[in-house]
Coenzyme F420-0:L-glutamate ligase
Amino acid sequence: MKNLTLTPLPDVPLIHTGDDLARIIINSCQHANLQLRDGDILVLAQKIVSKAEGRLVNLADVEPSPRARQLAEETLKDPRVVELILGESREIIRIRPGLIVVEHKQGFICANAGIDHSNVNSPLPRAGEGPGVRDEFALLLPEDSDRSAANLRQKLEEDSGAKIGILIIDSHGRAWRMGTVGMSIGISGFPALVDLRGEDDLFGRELKITQVGAADELAAAASLMMGQANEAQPIIHVRGFPYPPRESKLSELLRPKEEDLFR
């Protein structure tokens, strides 16, 4: 088993629409005197990917539908935010005041379609507005997180010459436990799921059902280093991932609906 090391990249600036994340990562690696090697993985917080891709929405520009207004009354949420949630979702799974659990259009179950207000920096006031007057913004998840990971990986591999992996993560709650945990939403260049069925355990018994959610395990570890408040460490460099690289997608981790005992 390799030694696994996780290192936050330094000097990552606040990200804005159109920023070149690959160039930012390359510069940050240089500041850390770190050269990418084959097998390295870079874990990115979803927020910086969404911001770079322009997924910031001004709530003043959102017109709620009748369905959004009705659901907003039931959940005590802003109807404009509910409209965004509906637009980002395949199906409403559960609701209660303050919460809408959905199947996101990328296939995973999450709260409020992953739409966030925390650590979302609003632009400066518009011309003609008084001092301190700002619009309210919400940040959506990337349109296709696997594609975002693959595009970023291609740019970094072309620059560095190293074969690497990219993981985009977000903080999700869990149905049966308190607290949020970092989870995978976009994967490229390393296995999301590691199938150990057919291998022997410590006592020589053949494993029958064991599959490891390796990408989610790494997401949780990286999320600890990123933090959830003002730590400003949204990119984590990983070296020593214990499983061999291969092409992979988030869909490997998503349990088919017909196998979901709780829906």
Notes: Residues 4 and 241 are 6 Å apart (CA to CA).
